[in-house]
Amino acid sequence: MRRRRPVPSLRDRIIELSRLPIDARIAVIAKMTPADMIMIDAAFEIWVHEGQIAPAGEGWRTWLMMAGRGYGKTRAGAEWITALATQRGRPVRIALVAATEGEARKIMVEGESGLIAVGRRRFKRPRWEPSLGRLTWPGGSQAQIFSGENPDGLRGPQHDFAWCDELAKWAHPDSTWDNLQLGLRSGPRPRALVTTTPRPIPLLRRIGAEPWTVTTHGRTSDNISMSERFVSIMTATYGGTRLGRQELDGELIEDIEGALWTRETIEKCRTPLPGKEGPGVGGAEGASGIGSPGSLRSHPPLTPPCQGGGFFRRIVVGVDPPASAAGTCGISVCGLGRNGIYYVLADESADGLSPAGWARAAARTARAWGADRVIAEANQGGDMVKAVLKAAAPSLPLRLVHASRGKVARAEPVAALFESGEAKLAGRFPALEDELAGLVAGGRYEGPGRSPDRADAMVWAMTFLMAPGREPRVRGL
């Protein structure tokens, strides 16, 4: 007797659907019955991204969901509120807070992913009274809309739960949040969800630092129903920029007080590689600009820019050797154009390589870019640095330099070039830019990692290019 094949569960069907290319996914959905579509769409907890799931445990009071546009923040918020409003037990009171009352109505309540739509999918549709700004579920739970424009509207009412949407857009974020918190005291365990695209405002930093806050993140590309073409175009256009990292990747990008490079300065200094056009320079091809790891194998040597008769008067490679095998070797390509502008051309920094490994990476970079000089810091074992670099490429045009000042002090003259518009970033280099933004006047470093190795390599290269009295000379390939 033949055994019947097991019928795939709803979860299995959704997982299989999510793995298909967008065109195949659309074709499958087009053949579904309306009942199938409703069932799959309503099964949010099955196909949801992990960042859209409420934190486990009972120790948290605030759930901060910082994510890119189109990630599904509204749907996640509406699902969470619907589950709380329709759970068994006593009715609960909920605050819905948006930047304006109009946005609360159009997005949180009436939107395609809002509370009414989610309630309809789950056959638990609430009654909506627009004139009162109030939702009421069959069991008696109620939600009232409030506005970040009117903090005093939250004085007095008590709530069990709150959903705060796009907090970074509120006109009066601090006073609105404080009034909400003072009234969030009803029931055994009051909680609030904040769904927002991040912006560097003090309140978001304050909420994220509180010990009772759990933060989840998500990118636009995490949404399985998002058009792949839209994601690819947005990534090619904005990927790696401050705007893209904030609006697409959901990162909180903020300036550090006293930073030598502000985020605004970094964006103003961004330009395509001379002789290239469009966002493909350091955009769709790699997160670190022309020189993402391994890109030297996929990109041909750039000629004529690197040739003596081309745009650049000279090109140099800066190397900041790591102090240990687990560290980062900063490798930066910089050039001086015939227009008198200095350019950062590539960040080829490498992590976790042996001395021979990072020496080969530096030599490979110099060959690919036709550099006429490699500038390597020799404070961390000068003889060893020279030996491994010469072993990797005996004809390498090497110059060792010794640091007599700290990294930040050396960076200050270079930062001044960017501030005056005399230096440019020819592409997008997120890891390097994060280190530059962490260099603080006075000597502190508050960026990622223990040391700004990528930034230091760039500073060495730029400093060499800036030095007077050196006859420009570019080696041919």
Number of strands: 17
Mean pLDDT: 81
* Bulk shape: elongated
Structural class: alpha/beta
Please state the CA-atom Rg, rounded to the nearest Å: 27 Å
Q: Tell me about the largest β-sheet.
A: 8 strands, mixed
CATH class of the largest domain: Alpha Beta
Number of domains: 3
Number of helices: 18
Question: Stretches where pLDDT falls below 50 for ≥5 residues?
Answer: 277-309, 471-477
Please bin the fraction of helical residues: 25-40%
Strand-residue proportion: 15-25%
In CATH, the architecture of the largest domain is 2-Layer Sandwich
Describe this structure in words.
With 477 residues, the chain is α/β, with parallel strands linked by helices. The protein is 35% helix and 18% strand. It has three domains: 36 residues, no CATH class; 175 residues, Rossmann fold (3-Layer(aba) Sandwich), CATH 3.40.50; 209 residues, 2-Layer Sandwich (Nucleotidyltransferase, domain 5), CATH 3.30.420.240. The protein is built from 18 helices and 17 strands. Strands 3-4-5-2-6-7-1-8 form an eight-stranded mixed beta sheet, with helices on both faces. Strands 9, 10, 11, 12, 13, 14 and 15 form a seven-stranded mixed beta sheet that branches. Strands 16-17 form a two-stranded antiparallel sheet. α14 packs across α15 and α16 packs across α18. The C terminus is likely disordered.
Characteristic terms for this protein:
477 residues, alpha/beta, Rossmann fold, Nucleotidyltransferase, domain 5, 3 domains, eight-stranded mixed sheet, seven-stranded mixed sheet, 18 helices, 18% strand
